[in-house]
Design a protein that fits this description.
Layout (H helix, E strand, L loop, with lengths): L24 H15 L5 H8 L3 H8 L5 H23 L5 H17 L10 H14 L4 H27 L5 H11 L2 H11 L6 H4 L2 H21 L1 H7 L5 H9 L3 H24 L1 H7 L4 H24 L24
Helix pairs in contact: 1-3, 1-4, 3-4, 3-16, 4-6, 4-9, 5-6, 5-7, 7-8, 7-9, 8-11, 8-13, 11-14, 11-16, 13-14, 15-16
């Protein structure tokens, strides 16, 4: 696969933290693995070995090196559950893809909105969300809860749209893909998770401003496009059409190798805009009538988003998640939604 590293980050995008890796990461990963066993997501030693080869604990140890154990566990739980659940949405079909996802969406929407709590034994995907969501959103003010709920449901609905392209084998057009991919990568939602995990509280007027929302979109684009470059061969092998490199190649009439170069250059443009917006946060906060502390909180979140993007590029050299000989689902995990 096209391998990329931290050299694809522009100057000034990453500020090394201290410590570079959260020393609690191995313990946190163990706790998350035990949680997945309790849910029924893991049922064999081979599945646990497969999951641990993904190195999710390392990823979040790099991305959130200063958080305490409980918050580190919470962040890894979302990422592990979300990744395994996402594979469930993508990798089983038998002509039932739409109906499978319809039931998942119905249950998750009910849990997120608090209108119903499905029986935890329904399946590990729903059981995990029913356990995780109340803890993730506990104590959020009304606007914060509304924001994270919208972002999660947008992610789920985008998965449904993406699956329609995968089912037909069609590569989406560039305009449709941009919004869809920003949501399927789940990084708009991830920004909310990082805000919670790191104990950051950006005031609503600043958090909801157009400029700060654009900063979060830059983050989502950077992570999605880097992911689509280093995951290209895996997506091709799995018949996944919703990949930025494939979309650029199809829409601009170029070879995949040229499309990789174009995608990485556009990701750099988004990094530069991210840094530009971050530098404007003090003036933006002042224009909204907010004190300097508001800009400081927003800058903390922006720094965490940049650390997350950096961690992704370090993690890719340690994870086995994108190995061509290691299936994401088939041959390792059962269909946990239908059966």
């Amino acid at each position: 696969m096209p391998m990329i590293d931290t050299s694809v980050l522009v100057d000034g995008f990453y500020d090394p933290p201290h410590p570079p890796v959260n020393p609690l990461a191995p313990q946190a990963e163990d706790e998350v693995v035990a949680w997945l066993w309790r849910l029924g997501f893991l049922s064999t030693a081979a599945q646990e070995e497969h999951l641990r080869s993904f190195e999710f604990g390392l990823y979040h140890g790099l991305a959130t090196p200063l958080v305490d154990l409980d918050h580190l566990v919470l962040g890894i739980q979302w990422f592990c559950w979300g990744s395994l659940a996402d594979d469930q949405y993508d990798n089983f079909d038998w002509g039932e893809r739409e109906s499978r996802m319809r039931g998942v969406l119905r249950d998750m929407r009910a849990i997120a909105l608090g209108t119903e709590r499905p029986a935890p034994a329904r399946n590990p995907v729903i059981a995990g969300f029913a356990d995780l969501w109340p803890r993730l959103t506990d104590g959020l003010p009304p606007r914060g809860r509304q924001r994270i709920t919208k972002h999660f449901l947008d992610y789920m609905q985008a998965i449904v749209l993406q699956n329609r392209y995968h089912a037909t084998g069609h590569v989406p057009d560039a305009a449709t893909f941009l919004t869809m991919r920003r949501n399927t990568i789940a990084m708009i939602f991830q920004a909310d998770v990082l805000e919670i995990v790191s104990g950051i509280a950006v005031p609503d007027p600043l958090r909801d401003s157009l400029l700060f929302r654009e900063l979060v979109l830059c983050f989502a684009d950077i992570l999605a496009w880097h992911n689509d470059v280093y995951g290209l061969e895996k997506d091709l092998a799995d018949g996944q059409t919703c990949n930025m490199v494939r979309v650029v190649a199809a829409s601009e009439g170029c070879a995949l190798a040229e499309a990789v170069d174009r995608v990485l250059e556009r990701a750099k443009d988004r990094q530069r805009l991210f840094l530009e917006i971050q530098g404007q946060l003090p003036d933006l906060a002042d224009s909204l009538g907010l004190p300097p502390e508001a800009a400081a909180e927003a800058t903390r979140l922006a720094r965490d988003l940049r650390a997350y993007a950096h961690a992704d590029l370090v993690w890719i050299y340690r994870t086995r998640r994108y190995d061509l000989d290691r299936p994401r689902i088939r041959g390792t995990f059962d269909d946990l939604i239908t059966h």
